[in-house]
Amino acid sequence: MSNKTIKIIDGDTEAEFPLMEGSEGPATINISSLYSELGYFTYDPGFMSTASCQSTITYIDGDKGILRYRGYDIEDLAENCTFLEVAFLLLYGDLPDASELTGFEDHITHHTLINENLKDLFSSFYHDSHPMAVMTGVVGSLSAFYHDEIDIHDPFDRDLAAVRLIAKLPTIAAACFRRLRGEPFVYPRNDLDYSSNFLRMMFAQPTADYEPDPIMAKAIDLLFILHADHEQNASTSTVRLVGSSGTNPFAAVAAGIASLWGPAHGGANEAVLNMLTEIGSVRNIPKYIDRAKDKDDPFRLMGFGHRVYKNHDPRATIIRKTCHEVLAKLGDHGDAQLQLELELAMKLEEIALQDEYFVERKLYPNVDFYSGIIYRALGIPTNMFTVMFAIARTTGWIAHWIEMISDPNLRIGRPRQLYTGPTERVFKPANDR
Ligand code: ACO
After folding, report:
1. Burial profile 275-312: b = 16 or more Cβ within 10 angstroms, e = fewer
2. What is the distance in A from the centroid of ligand 1 to the CA of 224?
3. What separation in Å is there between the alpha carbon of 361 and the centre of ligand 1?
4. CA 273–ligand 1 middle distance (angstroms)
5. pLDDT tens per residue across span 278-302
6. Of all protein residues, whose CA lies closest to atom 37 belonging to ligand 1?
7. Does 341 contact ligand 1 (Cβ within 6 A)?
8. Catalytic one among 306, 313, 355, 400?
9. Active site residue 306
10. Is 149 exposed, middle or buried (0-12, 13-18, 19+ CB in 10 A)?
């Protein structure tokens, strides 16, 4: 905490507010006593200049294109770690040593099964349900299985909830995929790593052996690492706000999934692929660029722009490379439609990056611009893309939930408002209106 203060002068009254310095990033004015001292609220729709909490988990410098988990550059983690190593880092603050990693992997592996009764829940959804709708419902229902076992004030219980969520999300996601296709569930296998296990639960058939492809498993693991956390985005802030009331973590994470679903957030990867299909051919790109620039047209270039990154999204750079590698390795086995989508994406990126509208507004491709193409190449259908994001982000959500609940100064999140509705009105009974 610095000794600096920021003074606000309001006519004859003045008040000073402490300036809080983090380890990096802009200093923050602590205005929590603004209302009691000056009688004002602050107004900041979309939280453009508001820090909602203090956190030690993830740091982003959007102008420089920096993303770090617990101080480590995303490039280093993506290059050298497995997803579970990164999950350990996010949860406990340090990278695990070899025995800690083995212990953590073992712990996760032994919580991948879901209660048999939970399986029945999948059958009750409409056959055409969106997988994110099913995920929101099923993850929320975990509270019904574990609520009584959880004392959110007990660090052991909090840790167990974290492990359960990280372990069960891939099983639930795969079960959701299989159920909606009318295919049988595939149980997790303890000898497989996190991502290979997920691939097997998604694609194995009871009628044949299935060996997960190591290239596919590595690509999935990388995507999970890149999506694992992103500080106070909409879904993480949702988990924090919901969790601040003291509700159980399964309910809070279900709320995070609901928030992630929106096309301005995690739903963007699905929207990118739908957009590429709609554009259809390179010659149609200029028409769609014009539409994106037209203020009277709601169309936006999906996968472009970010609230925080105004230089480049470092995750997009990593993923772009992997996208080319995965498609190159699929070679002749890759489908022509995918190659076309990749070409279309590259051309769209090239044209948009030269266009004054996008340059001026610093609209660069974000992580979702390429992730959908990789998922498609791996055989994951479009409506499952946001589910993939949810599996990865569950680790970030739960790390933030633990950080928040462990804070002795935790208070329920309760924003205020600028009321602009009617002032007091005279009530009239229905017959007199
Ligand atoms: N296409 C066309 N114009 C855009 C786009 C886009 N994708 N994104 C922003 N703009 C324009 C806006 O119209 C606005 O123009 P103006 O200044 O002339 O009014 C300007 O750029 C600033 O945009 P805002 O919407 O104010 O920026 P904000 O920070 O609120 O939104 C967001 C960021 C939601 C990501 C936005 O860029 C967008 O909708 N992108 C497309 C959806 C997407 O890819 N989302 C994924 C984000 S990454 C993630 O969640 C993992």
Report:
1. bbeebeeeeebeebbeebbeeeeeebbbbbbbeebbeb
2. 24
3. 9
4. 17
5. 999 999 999 999 999 999 999 999 9
6. 305
7. no
8. 306
9. yes
10. exposed
Report the candidate in 111, 92, 108, 106 with the shortest Cα–Cα distance to residue 149: 111
Q: What's the chain's length in residues?
A: 433
Closest protein CA for atom 28 of ligand 1: 307
Q: Tokens 């750079």 sit at which residue?
A: 317
- Ligand 1: centre distance to CA 309 (Å): 11
Token code pair at residue 179: 């159920």
Give the CA radius of gyration of the chain: 24
Q: What is the mean pLDDT of residues 261-271?
A: 86
pLDDT tops 80 at residue 333: no
Taking CA atoms only, the protein residue closest to ligand 1 atom 35 is 306
pLDDT tens-digit series, residues 11-61: 999 999 999 999 999 999 999 999 999 999 999 999 999 999 999 999 999
Q: Can you give the pLDDT at residue 370? A: 84
For the Cβ of 306 lying below 6 angstroms from any atom of ligand 1, the answer is: yes
Token representation of residue 8: 């606000």
Average pLDDT in the chain: 93
Atom of ligand 1 nearest to the CA of 313: 48
Q: Give the list of residues 6+ apart from residue 21 with CB closer than 8 angstroms, or none.
A: 1, 2, 27
Helix axes 314-330, 214-227, angle to 10 degrees: 170
Establish whether 230 is a catalytic residue: no
pTM: predicted TM-score of the whole model, two decimal places: 0.90
Residue 292 in contact with ligand 1 by CB distance below 6 A: yes
